[in-house]
Automatic annotation (TrEMBL):
This is HAD hydrolase. The keyword Protease does not apply. Keywords: Hydrolase. The lineage of its organism: Bacteria, Pseudomonadati, Acidobacteriota, Vicinamibacteria, Vicinamibacterales. PANTHER family: HAD FAMILY HYDROLASE, HYDROLASE, HALOACID DELAHOGENASE-RELATED. It comes from Luteitalea pratensis.
Length: 230
């Protein structure tokens, strides 16, 4: 594509590993709760339902995730044991927040290439301070013209980002691993969208992509393939 586009690029599970670490905490929590007679299946199903509700009200990130784990204990009927479990849960969240970021393959070189040809914006949702901390720790900050952290990535957020950043939707593309947050709402706002699938994408970020061909939605299997597209 010709130079001069605005490329909005997702962060978690597009540029670096993220959800696999949350899943590891869930695995260890589920194992711990079996000591109280709660099956791992019930733990996972209940937590997903709790997060679906709580993220609408409280947003995303490790702190809300930790709060959801405590709500989980109440929900599955072991609230009386929460004082015993709280040190374990809080230690898990503290370790999660200190986790070293693992960049996905080809990310730095590809971003450097894209930045020379286009305006590149990191567009991520979640807790503002936590997401900025990840950006700094990733070492990728200088590869973006701008970083924009929003509470939610829905159609209105994309339209607002285009207005605030002076991007024309017909000359903008969103790139990410989440059909729910990166592809469908960006397309609804008039952006093009590139789906970069990740096998560990959070269940709440999944939704069906259109069955009929849409030239405004494309897919690559690896981040590095974006160099051939843009």
């Amino acid at each position: 594509m010709r130079p001069g586009l605005t490329l909005f690029i997702d962060a978690d599970d597009t540029l670096w590993e993220n959800n696999i670490y949350f899943d590891s905490v869930i695995d260890r929590t589920a194992t711990r709760l079996t000591e109280y007679g709660v099956s791992t299946e019930r733990t996972r199903e209940a937590l997903l339902a709790i997060e679906r509700q709580r993220t609408r009200a409280h947003g995303y990130g490790s702190l809300n995730f930790g709060a959801s784990l405590e709500v989980l204990c109440e929900h599955v009927g072991i609230g009386e044991s929460l004082d015993q479990l709280r040190p374990f849960l809080r230690a898990e969240i503290a370790a999660l927040r200190r986790k070293r970021l693992e960049l996905l393959p080809d990310v730095p070189d590809t971003l450097a290439y894209l930045r020379r040809r286009h305006r590149v914006v990191l567009f991520t949702k979640g807790n503002h301070d936590e997401q900025w901390d990840k950006v700094v720790r990733s070492g990728l900050r200088d590869l973006f013209h701008q970083v924009d952290v929003v509470r939610e990535k829905d159609q209105a957020a994309y339209a607002d980002a285009a207005r605030r950043l002076g991007a024309r939707p017909q000359h903008a593309w969103m790139i990410g691993n989440s059909p729910k947050s990166d592809i469908m709402p960006a397309r609804a706002a008039g952006f093009g969208a590139v789906f970069v699938p990740h096998p560990g994408t959070w269940a709440l970020e999944l939704t069906d992509l259109p069955e009929t061909h849409d030239p405004g939605i494309r897919q690559v299997e690896r981040f590095g393939e974006l160099r051939d597209m843009f």
